[in-house]
Specification:
alpha+beta, Nuclear Transport Factor 2, Chain: A, five-stranded mixed beta sheet, globular, disordered N terminus
């Protein structure tokens, strides 16, 4: 009886520990979902509202932007960058994309091109890393660098 009780207690504790340490849901990202996330971010750019763009990022996300050498590690930094960037009325398009995913995290890396209202354009390499937080995918880091000439 004591041995059975001990086994049941260990199994219950193990199940409880696993349930509390493991995510309740394991979301993964595929190529189509990555496109949807890029479109969500790009559509936020179209609003011209930096706060709507920043809403795609976790509070502690790091942005290494295309047109600035300054890392943006807090909301104020991201807003500062996007307020300037949005004045150019950017419209982005993904040229190539590779998605790598695991439980509740993903990486989308590739190339994209931004066209601006003055008819100029910049092609860049990008990496978005995502985390599945509160039932939605958010950017945890975003690195973008203009293509070398």
């Amino acid at each position: 009886m004591l041995k059975t009780f001990a086994v049941i207690t260990l199994l219950t504790a193990s199940t409880y520990a696993s349930a509390n340490n493991a995510p309740a849901h394991c979301a993964t990202l595929d190529q189509q979902q990555a496109k949807i996330l890029f479109d969500r971010w790009n559509n936020a750019l179209q609003t011209g509202d930096a706060s709507k763009v920043a809403a795609n990022y976790t509070p502690d996300a790091v942005l290494l932007p295309t047109l600035s050498n300054q890392p943006r590690t807090d909301l104020a930094g991201k807003l500062d960058y996007f307020n300037k960037f949005l004045k150019r009325k950017p419209v982005g398009a993904v040229d190539s994309s590779t998605v790598i995913t695991s439980c509740n995290s993903a990486i989308d890396t590739g190339t994209y091109t931004f066209r601006f209202s003055d008819k100029s354009a910049v092609s860049a390499r990008y990496t978005f890393t995502y985390a599945y937080v509160d039932n939605r995918w958010l950017i945890t880091s975003h690195h973008s660098s203009a293509m070398p000439e």
